[in-house]
Amino acid sequence: MSQMSANINVMIAAARKAGRSLMRDFGEVEHLQVSVKGPGDFVSKADLKAEEILKTELMEARPNYGWLAEEGEEEAGADPTRRWIVDPLDGTTNFLHGLPHWAISLALEHKGEIVAAVVFNPVGDEVFVAEKGAGAWMNDRRLRVSGRRDMIQMLFATGLPFGGRDDLPETLQDLARILPTCAGVRRFGSAALDLAYVAAGRYDGFWERNLKAWDLAAGLLLVKEAGGLAQSVYKRGNPIEDGSVIAANGEVFEKFSKLVRGG
Fold first, then answer.
1. Can you give the pTM of this predicted structure?
2. How many domains would you assign to the chain?
């Protein structure tokens, strides 16, 4: 990405610093897998440490902005129109199990709209970046959503309920409608990377409910700036507010969204 704004530069630097800390901790996780206690406490500390690094870096650079992140209370800034929306470790369960698929997700919101986004995958050293009106990029490569038109060739991603969540029946109905129409559905365990992968054309679409603002914020802008569409599952809803999303290329969006919404 040739002309990056000061905000994007600040976000990338913060993500890389937190990424170094998480990579050190990720190296330790393998050793902890074999212990009786397991790596749970260790990983929640890694998560908190990464959030602390991000908060220090971002708030030092932009002390007037608000703050919304996974850990801790939402904080209003002196500038009420701007806030950071941050997930220091999206894909915690993967991280916990030593699976190399997790990311840092940073978004800047201005007057209720996401205007800058960074999703950083430290393991693969992939930095996904988008800025309103300036396109989406991975490292130095311009991103475009896939150009596939035929559902049967398309690969979709979603999340699956776990640990007794009550949305299992709904998800199984989704899968019953979508699986027969496509080339496959993947569940990789990081919504931020799922959306980044839609932006990169690796997936043709993604849907999920019961997410948080910090899971979605950066990925929504990546998809839109890569030429895709992203909406709430609920008609006239707002993904950041209701925690749901359908994202896909323009060729298939209408057909795909009808399947997700059940008609």
1. 0.95
2. 2
